[in-house]
Amino acid sequence: PEHHGHLFRIKGRRDFFTRPIPVHELICHLEESNEQQRDLCAIFDEALSAYMKQSWKDAIEMFHESMKICKKDGPSIFYAQLCENYRENPPGKMWNGLVCLNNK
Length: 104
Fold this sequence. Notes:
Layout: E1 6-11, H1 15-18, E2 21-23, H2 35-52, H3 56-69, H4 74-88, E3 99-102
Parallel strand pairs: 1-3
Antiparallel strand pairs: 1-2
Helix pairs in contact: 2-3, 3-4
């Protein structure tokens, strides 16, 4: 299984890199996955859906659930912090879920 990809834009790069790029976390082949890995992907998928709906509280709770399965799951940690930031400073109606990373 894999976490669903999401679009990121990296600031501070040449034009080629300023276009949004999809980012995925590859875990393993589906037939080699265990129940814990499948649970992690299912919960992360729900959390990402809540994130896209700007349901910050629900998304944060689900990202924390995925961190209970895998404490060092980088995407869950990243998105939980991002949701906390958006809860304090909402991105507005025109927000499309795109994540902009500053390359500095």
